[in-house]
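Quarterly update from the structural biology core.
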Amino acid sequence: MAEKIKLEIVTPESVLVDEDVDEIYAVCDLGEFGVLPGHCRMLSSVKIGSARFRNKGSVTHLSLGGGYAEVGSDKVTILAETAELSKDIDVERANRALANAQETLKGLSPDDKKYSDTESAIERATVRLETAKK
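Predicted structure, tokenized:
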């Protein structure tokens, strides 16, 4: 079994992470999942949420805005709608996004087409703020 696993986190704009790591954790529909080297193959959706990976004893936290994960025995590829490392999150911008989305939601009914998108915006901003604290 390999000692490391290759992690790639790709967004439509860039490759955010491309390195060998010790372990990876993310959130899917069934809850949090972890991946170590030698993991069985799997394909999963990735929910909006915090993720983390460990390399050489150091843990890196990031926010994911949903997407998909492909897991192999020696590589994990996460295709994310959005992703940000905790150190790169602009807290003021996330607070503004949260406030704007909460204000927008007040004026919408659950039947409105924008309701679900606005709820997702609130969830993304909340996750970004929580991840920035880590």
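The CA atoms of residues 7 and 76 lie 5 Å apart.
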